[in-house]
Prior knowledge:
- It is built from 13 helices and 18 strands.
- By secondary structure, the chain is of the alpha+beta class.
- Helix 1 packs antiparallel against helix 3.
- The site of flavin-adenine dinucleotide has 34 residues, from strand 3, helix 5 and strand 10.
Amino acid sequence: xxxxxEALEAWxxxxxxxHVLADEVTLARARTATFATTQAVSAxxxxxxxxxxxxxxxxxxxxxxxxxxxxxxxxxxxxxxVPVRSGVLVDLGRMNRVLEFDEDLAYLTVEPxxxxxxxxxxxxxxxxxxxxxxxxxxxQASLIGNALERxxxxxxxxxxxxxxxxxxxVLPTGECLRTGPGRYPRAQAASVLRWGAGPGLDGLFSQSxxxxxxxxxxxxxxxxxxxxxxxxxxEDPFQLGPVLERMRQLRLEGTLREAFSLWNDYxxxxxxxxxxxxxxxxxxxxPEAQRRKLRAEHKVFPWHLNCVLEAPSEAQAQAAQERVxxxxxxxxxxxxxxxxxxxxxxxLRQVPSARNLRMMYWRKxxxxxxxxxxxxxxxxxxxxxxxxxxxxxxxxxxxALAEPLPLRFGFEPNLCVLxxxxxxxxxxxxxxxxxxxxxxxxxxxxxxxxxxQALGGAGYYPARLGIQAPVLPFAPEDDSPAVLRTLxxxxxxxxxxxxxxxxx
Length: 504
Ligand SMILES: Cc1cc2nc3c(=O)[nH]c(=O)nc-3n(C[C@H](O)[C@H](O)[C@H](O)COP(=O)(O)OP(=O)(O)OC[C@H]3O[C@@H](n4cnc5c(N)ncnc54)[C@H](O)[C@@H]3O)c2cc1C
């Protein structure tokens, strides 16, 4: 009997037949991303608890069959649920319990299958005064998968992995550990203190293949009673640098606690509608005349700034708004500050929404479906997110590299600058195309590689990697590759856990 058959039989005994899937529909879904992939998935395992995850790992160790975990598998633009190398997928979606919630201490402890939509509904049902960072991505994406990828969200805890603790991790050896004080009996501070005594291990398990996380605590932020939308349009791209500098100032001094975003016109247009195939008679990338027409039709400008100001009282909101106006108005004369009640339905409370998923259908010739399923629909979509110090000169340099490249490959430069922290912005490029057009898969990946090479060559490295580039094509100058190889060999001697994902 070959190793895979041996492993499948053992997994069936441990999980039950119904939780070891190998039907063609499941496998096709597991190996399809929003760009070309060649990896095969031989089975999908669906453990229901930590003990079953440990059993999955032990069997993989015994049989040397590689396994890769996903929490919700909605990593769209970075590879969806496709593993870096062929193997078996461990889908943690059945483990979807909220394990702990404390309104006073403001935290929520969850299993990997808990989604943003589920967590949001959980807090709503309890009339909670607390909020979780909301991503602009799929509402069905998982809190844990997003945090492990060091994702970014909207809300005071937008730099998600900075606000988590108490990880429970199953190692490739089958051992299980808890990070922070939670490793001790009756630890009272397990969910409120990140470090405890001794080395902090949390970071080892984010963007890595050293363990499967089966539990994590998320710190929540109070929902401020007073919100204002700070927004403005940049009629001239030269305003970008000065606006960024002033936003940094407002973030550093604490007037603005939330991430801000700057979207270019292509990004706004791709959320509002689809490519004007008829008007352009099939010509790509979008001709300048059409770009201007669409801008005028939809009141879209070269760049749009958005940020939410939060304050615990009306007086503080008013003072903060005045400060924002004082710092920004001269550079951004179009600045407007709207109170929540002026915003209309939905207001400013962030609710997980599928709205931005429309972007993925920008270049499709078929209309947007009611429920987006981009992998099924042949949407071509690749993200590249690079870290840029928050100064005008860095942003201008990075943009000068990133902006012209997509056009050379036949795509619109769909760009966003995210002020996730006070010192560092992410320049996020989306390459959007139609996988059903012959040659576009290859062209889009060549565009991604050229962008990564150009930005990385100037020192602007990705903040996060997709399976399209699971390790960076740049050699570190220090001894980290050897150290990481030693760690991996110690924790995963047969290299069975997510081989190739960030680490060998
Ligand atoms: C239009 C659009 C908008 C988006 N907006 C955002 C955004 O605003 N912010 C953002 O951060 N992302 C965004 N994304 C990207 C992505 O959808 C999210 O990051 C999403 O949270 C990732 O999917 P997931 O949570 O289901 O993670 P998964 O796909 O389950 O996991 C992601 C990766 O993490 C690892 N992993 C997952 N679970 C575990 C585990 N339990 N143990 C160990 N390793 C694990 C795996 O390597 C996996 O490949 C967007 C995507 C699209 C298409």
